[in-house]
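tokens incoming
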């Protein structure tokens, strides 16, 4: 595990956020929350309207003040609203058996619908959007010293996360069973924006991982890489978990990922997420060296 290198930005002072400008994910969450409220109100009105029409059609409502049947459509809607809201003013009463059955059904539906809607709104308001992302491809990185690195990057477009754990598994299918060939895990206490994870493949401590990669290349139709992330939202302490599977065809050769931000002293600039998946390519000679290391023959460019 000592040879699993990671680079994060957890010790860097970030540029203060401008809270007057919502980022994309915050805006998306707000729009979804308002959409749920709108749908909830619409369903509420549909239920009240339906029962109002049923009360009007079957009759059986009596004015407690005038001791006469309620005939106006508006009064039937009014009674339906009071019943579904469990207010029960008592100025209009259900006098017939059918009206009492309808009132009982509407009241029971209200007891079910209201807490479900309230609970779902609470969930939508406090849940974290899907703002933790992995790079589109796994980078097999080659440096000028002819060292090989298994590289990937985790991005955080939302609130900071703590106690973060990433696990990389090399997986194959054998006898209809999924087998883990080998795996590596690494941690970082705080994830602000970007976390670079690299495994040096030339390191003798990682011989099992390097051999596992060679096995994947040889058995690419039945093998894949699974990367999983687990952390906690710093503000709500809620757990955050996701994983992504990479096929061998998702591997790319290159010399480095593009930086998504830069530093002005100890201050970090705002991230440019359009660069998150960009990779500097290798030349033909470097590509052939990587293929040779991974046991891919003929040693052609990937």
């Amino acid at each position: 595990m000592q040879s699993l290198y990671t680079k994060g930005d957890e010790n860097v002072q970030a540029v203060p956020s401008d809270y007057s400008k919502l980022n994309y994910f915050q805006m998306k969450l707000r729009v979804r929350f308002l959409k749920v409220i709108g749908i909830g109100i619409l369903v509420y009105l549909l239920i009240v309207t339906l029962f109002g029409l049923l009360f009007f059609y079957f009759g059986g409502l009596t004015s407690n003040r005038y001791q006469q049947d309620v005939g106006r459509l508006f009064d039937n809607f009014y009674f339906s609203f009071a019943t579904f809201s469990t207010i029960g003013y008592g100025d209009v009463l259900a006098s017939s058996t059918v009206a009492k059955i309808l009132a009982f059904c509407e009241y029971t539906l209200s007891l079910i619908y209201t807490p479900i809607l309230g609970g779902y709104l609470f969930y939508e308001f406090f849940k974290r959007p899907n703002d933790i992302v992995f790079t589109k491809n796994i980078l097999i990185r080659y440096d000028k010293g002819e060292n090989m690195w298994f590289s990937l990057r985790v991005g955080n477009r939302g609130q900071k996360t703590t106690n973060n754990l990433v696990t990389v598994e090399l997986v194959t299918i054998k006898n209809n069973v999924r087998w883990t060939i080998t795996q590596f895990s690494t941690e970082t206490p705080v994830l602000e924006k970007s976390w670079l994870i690299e495994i040096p493949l030339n390191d003798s401590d990682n011989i099992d991982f390097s051999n596992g990669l060679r096995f994947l290349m040889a058995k690419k139709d039945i093998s894949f890489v699974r990367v999983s992330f687990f952390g906690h939202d710093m503000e709500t302490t809620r757990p955050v978990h996701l994983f992504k599977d990479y096929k061998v065809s998702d591997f790319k050769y290159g010399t480095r990922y593009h930086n998504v931000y830069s530093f002005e002293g100890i201050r970090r600039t705002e991230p440019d997420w359009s660069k998150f998946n960009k990779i500097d390519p290798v030349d033909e000679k470097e590509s052939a060296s990587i293929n040779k290391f991974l046991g891919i023959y003929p040693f052609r460019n990937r």
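note: DSSP finds five helices and 18 strands in the chain.
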